[in-house]
Amino acid sequence: MALSQPQLVELNSKMNQVFSLDEIESLCFDMGIDFDSLGGEGKGAKIRELIEFCRRRGRDEELVAKVRAERPQVAWPGAPAPQAAPAGGGGNEYNFSSHAQTGGTAKTVNYIGDKPKTAQPPKTVGRPTMLRLDVAVPEKVSLGKSFVLAAAVRQPSSPRLTGDEYEKVASSDAMVVWPSKQAYVQLGIEIIAPDCGIEGRDQISFQYSQSYDSTIHRFSLVPRVTGPINIIVNLYQEDESLGSASVKTTVSEEPVGRVEITTRSEEFKTFDKPLPRKVTILFLAANPKSTDRLRLDEEVRTIDERLRLAQYRDKFNLEQQWAVRTNDILDAMLRYKPDIVHFSGHGSLDGALIFEDAAGKAKPVSAAALGALFHALEGVRCVVMNACWSATHATQVAKDVDCVVGMSRSVSDDAAIGFAAGFYRSLGEGKSVGKAFELGKVQIMLDGGLDDDDEQKIPRLKSRPGVDPTSVTFA
User: In sequence order, which ranges of 353-449 are alpha helices (DSSP H)?
Assistant: First the structure.
């Protein structure tokens, strides 16, 4: 009789507890299964894939029989209760005993024979602390299409995960032992989803600081079946020093917190109208070793902040490429397929933009070369060159790109950052490129970077023949 889904989950958990990776490989050999062909890396992933392999081929009962033969003292799902090992006899006895301090179940192992018969409970130093494990998934997912599961450890008084991406949220209390005189505990999150493939990691280890909520950890899952999909998320407290080199906790492999959550998988349906595509802004930064240091990090942070404040923030996607070498430019353009390209760095008096070579040294790129790049590519509608003396490039690039911003002479960090702030804040509010350009210059004036007589002398807006910049919008 095939195992039920709860039994498969139980089988997965217990195999992780009592088998090593090498033992799983030997088990596969005994069953005639190619261990290397099982997906994933690490013990947890291999066990999950082995169980799924056997389930699909109706061999789950055979697998249970094999693991029971190897570990007869474990209560395996779908198998008779284990018999106690005779006193003084051979074999291994697995004693799963509860320890209230950890809020979970600690695994202790007795080896009968030439090792001690009595397992000692783990020593724990610290105080029990209540936390909460939150898990979120979409309400519905599509067969064969990846979706994101979010998990976070939070204080009991903190709000649950909220937001448009967290349609369905489940929570569970989690009791951990907080070590004395230590600012953090080591925790681990594990995903068990028999009906899903897992892209990348299925578990993560992290340090949890006292009195704070953890970062949100995301896992990518791909449904293999349609209908309800049951997912279990376990939270573990991992082995960690408790304030003394000689005192360690043996926190068990049983979870201190556990959340079960269900989503629904459906056949993927295409839409009559394509889903709206976000506007991609590609930020290219270059500051070679031999050039003056620029505040490029502050500039991209300002752009990101201004877009996040804007009404249409969800329509924009900001990608970043740092220390750009000349052989990185085309690769980045093809990879990100940007609508807007923003270059931040140095320009030279003779009209070249300064990128880097393989050694991090300055390498100029001419206006003709950059013009040829945008002539060959399609899809870029706006280019901003926040670099000194870049107006020459703007004129060349504007032959093939709707709108191009360049600087007519040397520009300070403050002025460059101020222009970017006003320009992208305006684009995010649905303003045209022409209007955003004017408001970018206004921001420079508000910041005190230019006198009235100079305001028209630095940023310059060029447009492709026949294109009105006041008609070009992105939101």
Answer: 367-376, 391-397, 413-428, 433-446
Q: How many folded domains does the chain comprise?
A: 3
Percent of the chain with pLDDT over 70: 80
Q: Do both 65 and 209 map to the same domain?
A: no
The predicted pLDDT at position 75 comes to 84
Task: State the CB neighbour count (10 A cutoff) for residue 122.
Answer: 18
pTM to 2 decimal places: 0.46
CA atoms within 13 A on the CB side of 326: 15
CA-wise closest residue to 66 among 40, 112, 100, 27 = 27
Q: Which helix (H) or strand (E) holds 93?
A: strand 92-99
- Residue bearing tokens 């013990």: 43
Residues 6+ away with beta carbon under 8 Å from 365: 326, 329, 352, 353, 354, 355
Most confident of 24-33, 203-212, 345-354, 422-431: 422-431
Q: Provide the pLDDT for residue 126.
A: 65
Cα dist. 233→97, 168, 261, 348 in Å?
Answer: 22, 14, 8, 56
Q: Which of 83, 115, 143 is the last residue of a domain?
A: 83
Residue 111: strand pairing partners:
92
Instruction: Give pLDDT tens digits for 43-73.
Output: 888 888 888 888 888 888 889 988 888 888 7
My answer on whether 463 and 368 are in the same domain is yes
Can you give the residue range of the structural domain that contains 238?
127-266
